[in-house]
Amino acid sequence: MSADETNEPCVRKEDIEAGLRRLGLKKGDSVGVHSSLSSFGRVEGGADAVIDALLDVVGEDGNVVMSTHSANLLEVPRTPEQIAMGVSWLFKILPYDPAETPVTTGIISETFRKKKV
Questions:
Q1: Where are the domains of the chain?
Q2: What is the pTM of this model?
Q3: Which of 8, 15, 18, 52 is nearest to 33 (CA)?
Q4: For 14-25, how does the pLDDT look when each residue is reduced to its tens digit (9 = 90+)?
């Protein structure tokens, strides 16, 4: 059964913009965003609609910041000597590459990371 067949209400970009403005967000503001697309319900346009609404509300002079909690990790096996010494780490943290390192905080943040603005 598709989302349309469930009669689930659909949130539109315009709805999100109106809600952000009701919260007091305006042109030129800076906003830190922690998000969950599923918390919106069904969103027409998905993560892109949420991002576009944020960008439209703050405008070109505003800032939208999203946490990524990116973990660019490489698993490193421990040697028997390291294990005997009590070394408990299993991963090496690699440099963050904004073009390649995926985020771990959801589809809105991941879509935002990839968006060319």
A1: 4-68+102-114
A2: 0.77
A3: 52
A4: 999 999 999 999
